[in-house]
Amino acid sequence: MKKNNPAALAAAFASALTAVTALTALTAAPAQAAPEGLSVGFGTHVWFSEYKGVDDVVYPLPLINWEGERLYVHGIEAGAYLFKNAQHEVTLGVGLMPLSFDASDSDDRRVKRLDDRKLSASANLGYALNTEFGRFQAILGVDVLGRSDGILFTGIYSYPMLFGRTQVIPSVAVTYADANFNDYYYGISAKESARSGLAAYDAGASVTPMLGLHVIHSFDEHWSVYGSSSLTILAKEAKDSPMVEDKVRFGVGAGVTYRF
Fold first, then answer.
1. Which residue, 256, 248, 255, 257, is CA-closest to 47?
2. How far apart, in whole angstroms, are the C-alpha atoms of residue 38 and residue 233?
3. How many Cα atoms occupy the beta-carbon half-sphere of 65 within 13 Å?
4. pTM for the complete prediction?
5. Using CA atoms, how far apart are residues 36 and 150, in angstroms rounded to an integer?
6. Angle, alpha carbons 71-227-256 (nearest 5°)
7. Residue 46: strand, helix, or coil
8. Of 40, 29, 130, 125, which is closest to residue 77 (Cα–Cα)?
9. Which of 4, 158, 160, 173 is the most buried (most CB within 10 A)?
10. Range with lowest mean pLDDT among 21-25, 187-191, 196-200, 223-227
11. Average pLDDT, whole number, for the chain?
């Protein structure tokens, strides 16, 4: 197994624990609206990369979630509630875009000669609707570091179910990624092509579905354990890239949290 820079994949880990990562890309099983307060914990996630020659990677990472009356910290995103009541939430935050690529992590000699794709930060505008039929979310993320100058728009539906002290949250998400985002993370320039021997590739905009499952078991009002998994089915625009070998991106994780 290979290990990437933990900061570069923190988004993939935290997206399994929060409503946004989304980025998502991110990311993953959205959490139900949380009560005010602070929770801290530690978990380990395994991420199976779609990039050619990159082995599965393990990330032992701390996690922090804090809910205030108007401010919040959800793992790798921090922001403010522009509006919040029992049914509706409007948020504005800054977080990480959950994708990166380090060419040196690949075992493929041609892929090793490509440029790195760096992690970026995004400004996120989100809306959530809590109903008896589940939680609906819409998140618009814009790259603010100029890595890709890309835009992500994600729609998420999750349905929290409670079985005694155990909460099960299945979710489904669809993410639109514009051509700038996809071309940065999956495209191959003419210069890279000449250097690596891989065919040049321009990646267009895409729509990508994802399935997630998040399970939380509470021992008491303070201690909980969780397990999570996510399956992203790559769109044609990504999986047709010469630097990609898998049609899906898969992640699993588990950990423990303490609520103060």
1. 248
2. 34
3. 21
4. 0.83
5. 33
6. 65
7. strand
8. 125
9. 173
10. 21-25
11. 85
Which pLDDT score, from 0 to 100, does residue 35 have? 61
Counting Cβ atoms within 10 Å, is residue 219 exposed (0-12), middle (13-18) or buried (19+)? exposed
Residue reference for tokens 């993953």 = 28
Instruction: Identify whether 21 is preceded by a cis peptide bond (ω within 30 of 0).
Output: yes
| Position 80, amino acid | A
Residue 1 lies in a domain: no
* pLDDT tens, residue by residue, 147-169: 999 999 999 999 999 999 999 99
Residues 6+ apart with CB under 8 A from 232: 24, 25, 26, 27, 208, 209, 210, 248, 249, 250
Task: Give the chain's domain count.
Answer: 1
What is the identity of the amino acid at 98?
Answer: P
Strand pairing report for 71-74 and 57-67:
antiparallel
Are the C-beta atoms of residues 2 and 54 closer than 8 Å to each other? yes
Torsion angles phi and psi, residue 9, rounded to 5: -115, 10
| Residue 194 within a domain | yes
Q: Which two tokens stand for residue 149?
A: 């100058």
> Is position 55 within any domain?
yes
What DSSP designation does 55 have?
A: P
Q: What is the DSSP string of 61-98?
A: EEEEEEE-SSEEEETTEEEEEEEE-SSEEEEEEEEEES
* CATH at residue 226: 2.40.160.40
Domain that holds residue 114: 6-259
What pLDDT sits at residue 57? 74
The answer to whether residue 41 is domain-embedded is yes
